[in-house]
Amino acid sequence: MTLMRSHSVRDSDFVGEGVFITADGTKHKSQQFMLREVQVGTHLIRDVVANVVPIEGDPLLGQSFLSRLPSWSIDNNSHVLSLATGEAIQTAPESLLPSNPAISSPPATVPPSGNLGTSARYKRTNCGSIVDSRTGLEWFIGPDADVTWTEAQSWARNMGACGKQWTLPTIGDLRSLFDKGYVAGTGYFTSGRHWPAHIEPIFSSIGQGSWVWAYGELAGGDAPAFNFNQGVAVKVSASHFYGTVRAFAVVR
After folding, report:
1. Which overall architecture, per CATH, does domain 122-251 show?
2. In the chain, where does the domain assigned CATH 3.10.100 lie?
3. Can you tell me the mean pLDDT for 72-83?
4. In whole angstroms, what is the distance from residue 69 CA to residue 78 CA?
5. 47 close to 9: Cβ distance less than 8 angstroms
6. Angle at 138 between CA 133 and CA 120, to 5 degrees
7. Quick one: which of 194, 226, 200, 201 has its CA closest to 211?
């Protein structure tokens, strides 16, 4: 509330609901938001995902900050937290580029966290759609370009690919694709770091996208979407979201 009052955090910085784990292993659900800068002493890290704790709780410095450092340690004798200088360097394999040759994106790297292979669960059809043998859903991936929620709806309804009638997926449909063990595309890029989508690489034409629009209702200018980096449903600005939102279409 203090950050909102000082305009350090705005409504557009909220990225949905997530889970944080305290030192005793307890899991807590809370709203998540993006802190543009977090400074501890002389150490400055940008674009840190933070959780909202109860008003009576103490502010905690967690892994969303510490994991961005090359190293850190705790001296239990002198009760000192020692932080290494700089930010962790991400090394990665060759980027996964969109499979649609008509769409191009700048070369980028993918974080080395995730499987770059695809299981037998998904099959690509002759007309370019992707069939999920587990759920029976058939998917079509939109262009690797930022689109508004209204544009995504219009694209899904009118494209007519494979001679079928398509629609935007529900949050449940999108959640069924999320798999933390996989990386697809390059993901949202900010401050030298990628936030890729965690779905199987057959969906790699999501490209630089990390969020996907979902079917639903507008509420105060916000529309439903699914964050494929964090694996959470979110409500974000339907027309002015700061991240990279893509459109998927589905047939049941």
Report:
1. Roll (3.10)
2. 122-251
3. 80
4. 21
5. no
6. 30
7. 226
* pLDDT tens digits, 127-155: 999 999 999 999 999 988 899 999 999 99
Is 186:149 a contact under the CB 8 Å cutoff?
Answer: no
pLDDT of 102 reads 30
Best CA proximity match to 4, nearest among 40, 39, 41, 31: 31
Contacting residues for 124 by C-beta, under 8 A, at least 6 apart: 130, 131, 202
Secondary structure (H, E, C), the chain: CHHHHCCCCCHHHEEEEEEEECCCCCEEEEEEEEEEEEEECCEEEEEEEEECCCCCCCCCCCHHHHCCCCCEEEECCCCEEEECCCCCCCCCCCCCCCCCCCCCCCCCCCCCCCECCCCCCEEECCCCCEEECCCCCEEEECCCCCCCHHHHHHHHHHCCHHHCCCECCCHHHHHCCCCCCECEEEEEEECCEEEEECCCHHHHHHCCCCEEECCCCCECCEEEEEECCCCEEEEEECCCCCCCEECEEEEC
Measured on CA atoms in the order 30, 34, 36, 38, is the torsion positive or negative?
positive
CB proximity list for 76: less than 8 A, separation 6 or greater: none
Angle (CA) 235-20-9 rounded to 5° is 50
